[in-house]
Amino acid sequence: MKKQTIVIYDFNILFEILFEIKKNLNFDIIQAKNDKDYSNIDKDSLGNYLVITKNKQNNVFSKRCIVIEEFPIKINTLIEKLNINLLKQKYNFQNDIKLNKYKLDLNSREISLNNTKLKLTEREVEILVFLNENSNPQKIENLQKEVWGYASDLETHTVETHIYRLRKKIKETFNDENLIISEKDGYLVK
Question: For 39-59, what is each residue's pLDDT tens digit?
Fold first, then answer.
């Protein structure tokens, strides 16, 4: 899954502090010194992100913005506040993911097309999200590591079995055999 991102807008000292401790953070940080820097960021590639600033802004990022006005602030308090807001943001913006012609609702774990819905397991959702986030075919070993957390030297057919069952459910519900494609280099959502 994509790592969450904090965009530090017009707040150089905060960026410097977080940059110094970035290896201890569970989110990425990007600096935007002004509107031009901010508009040059490819927000679609960021996934879940928040904008942190010290001044109230009337910009396009208002729904994703946290204003830090009280100084000084303890770094642990700040990081906790950022993590809580990233979690809220993730929950609010993750409802629907587009998978080709389908809509995947992560909260209800349903994939739908028009008025037809299919309930999925948590693992099936994780498989679809992982494959959807990667434009290249994903090898079984990658899926084992990223979705299951398995070591790559395990002898198992878990991935193939789950994908087989997921494809079967999709075919039975939507009459579609082409959402998950098997290529020589691995699996891909098309």
Answer: 888 876 776 788 888 876 645
